[in-house]
Design brief:
alpha/beta; single chain; six-stranded parallel beta sheet; 6 strands; about 180 residues
């Protein structure tokens, strides 16, 4: 029997809101209610939930590649809409975690792997943005550390036309189970 955790990736104002610095816009907004329902399901069964969020300094070298986004302490770095409300309501619960991440892969330079091991997790469920960047590379981070991965087609979005292709890559390369 698997021991599961939910990773909600980069669902910030900057990635989701129309006025965000690097927004996936309507496709990202469309997945919010699905993610909230999934978070409720994980929470009701006592499974850990991790909000893995870009957290950049104002002068981050990352901004040589991308528009400014998710600068620590700004509106853009806050969780978007009802996901932000969900987090505020549940953040005091022991199995709800906020993981600020400096890289695409939520495992790099964070304590995510350590926390997953403490919960004896063997399978991570992935939702959020962007399918072809942080979601894909976090799937790799999980795979390379021995976790099984599950990705939700209805729970991921991106600002490119690469959504389906990168879900296929996750399945082909990391053996990720894709759930429609």
């Amino acid at each position: 029997m698997s021991r599961d955790a939910l990773l909600i990736i980069d669902m910030s104002n900057d990635f989701v809101h129309d006025q965000g610095g690097l927004s996936a816009g309507k496709p990202a907004q469309k997945i919010v209610s699905f993610i909230v329902k999934l978070a409720d399901q994980f929470n009701e069964t006592g499974k850990p939930i991790f909000f893995c969020m870009d957290a950049h300094e104002a002068n981050d070298a990352h901004f040589n590649l991308w528009p400014v986004h998710n600068v620590k302490g700004t509106w853009g770095a806050h969780l978007y809409g009802s996901l932000g409300e969900w987090y505020v309501t549940h953040k005091q619960q022991q199995k709800v975690h906020f993981i600020p991440k400096p890289e695409y892969d939520a495992f790099i330079r964070t304590n995510l792997d350590q926390l997953l091991k403490q919960y004896e997790v063997d399978t991570v469920h992935l939702v959020g943005v962007c399918t072809d960047i942080c979601d894909f590379l976090t799937a790799y981070g999980a795979y390379s550390r021995g976790y099984a991965t599950i990705a939700y087609n209805k729970g991921m979005a991106t600002f490119t036309d690469q959504h389906e292709r990168f879900l296929e890559h996750m399945h082909a390369i990391f053996k990720t189970t894709i759930i429609d």
